[in-house]
Amino acid sequence: xxxxxxxxxxxxxxxxDHPRIQKPSLAFAGFLYNLxxxxxxxxxxxxxxxxxxxxxxxxxxxxxxxxxLGLAGVVITRGIDPPDCILxxxxxxxxxxxxxxxTSGQFMTDMTLLLSHRLAPVTYQHGVYLDIFxxxxxxxxxxxxxxxxxxxxxxxxxxxxxxDDMVQLVREGADVLVGRSPDPLRDHMEIRGMGVINxxxxxxxxAITPTKRVQLVVELxxxxxxxxxxxxxxxxxxxxxxxxHIPRSRLPIRPGRSxxxxxxxxxKNRLLKLSGVDSNRxxxxxLQARIRxxxx
Length: 296
Fold this sequence. Notes:
Layout: E1 4-7, H1 25-28, E2 41-43, H2 45-52, H3 56-67, E3 74-76, H4 84-93, E4 97-99, H5 104-118, E5 122-132, E6 135-141, H6 147-156, E7 160-173, E8 176-180, E9 188-191, E10 195-198, H7 199-203, E11 211-222, E12 238-241, E13 244-253, H8 259-274, H9 279-295
């Protein structure tokens, strides 16, 4: 964003804790309520013009009162040379004063997107995460149940690995959960009996994708733990991860079952649901219609 530090280098350690950006227009008018020190402040041509309409004494007063709050940082847009009162206040309070040639609107839009990404809540989930038919599918289950082996077979079948063993989950919106691999584990999988393998080197760059929105969770469970009542899966089964409800498919695992194919079918079935086709609901409606027909 072509940022240039003008003053306040000693305050660069201050934290920005919120993605929304403020303009201190009301603060320059003497109203400091709701001006938050943990949000980035943007001063544009309108704010500068207003300050210049005030007497020098009034300018110094309102600017000093504003900067005395210990602001995380102040950005002057359009490459405008800041008035001396702003430069002095930044130096006196060690407030980072930054210049950019961008317009206020453009800078605020781009910086909000950047901060929303950097400040998004992060958690970690044990599992294997893949891009299957363009759908972000997270495999979870007990340690040793075979998640990595199934993930490896899916990669061999042409799908893309995002992360193995530990998945970084970032909540980038109220209902948007994005998964990626922690840097030390990127491109690698651990396969029991083989150790750590490099998927990019074995299968090529096309077998890896860096990030994907989580749209389906496939939970692998032991066959004996799968109850008879679960044979017909609940119509709207979900799991809550990082305060986001994600559709879930529970698959029992035992020798002889082609789990990679079943995971592919689960992904295709989810894609059908997203397009408005729900096989479970359709079958249940047809069955109920037949029962009602026989009853009459």
